[in-house]
Amino acid sequence: MATLRDGGVRRLVLIIGGADGLDGAILEAAQETLAFGPQTWPHALARAMLAEQVYRAVTILSGSPYHRD
Fold first, then answer.
1. What pTM value is reported for the model?
2. What's the number of CA atoms in the CB half-sphere (13 Å) around residue 57?
3. Could you tell me if 33 and 27 are in contact, meaning their C-beta atoms sit under 8 angstroms apart?
4. How many domains does the chain have?
5. What is the pLDDT of residue 69?
6. Range of the domain at 30
7. DSSP per position, 16-67
8. For 1-12, how does the pLDDT look when each residue is reduced to its tens digit (9 = 90+)?
């Protein structure tokens, strides 16, 4: 996230694929890919996991302390 921000990237598109993955054309067009592992997650859970990771990255980059219990 910091590299994208510092590199001047103004637009970030995050796509969650279906149970069978993404179409090859989408994967070919992607500059980067991210995976939560080989598991197949329900879309609602995948969205929540992705949102949490983006939130965590942004808050850490803004100087907030990393939260641990």
1. 0.76
2. 11
3. yes
4. 1
5. 54
6. 2-61
7. --BTTB--HHHHHH-S----S-SS---HHHHHHHHHHHHHHHHHHHTTPPPP
8. 899 889 999 998
Contact 26, 16 (CB under 8 A): no
Q: How far apart are CA 9 and CA 62, in angstroms?
A: 17
Between residues 61 and 69, the one the model is more confident about: 61
Query: How far from each other are the two terminal CA atoms of the chain, in whole angstroms?
Result: 24
- At 9-42, the pLDDT tens digits run 999 899 998 878 889 999 999 988 988 888 888 9
DSSP 10: -
Q: Is residue 28 part of a domain?
A: yes
Asked if the structure places residue 67 within a domain, the reply is: no
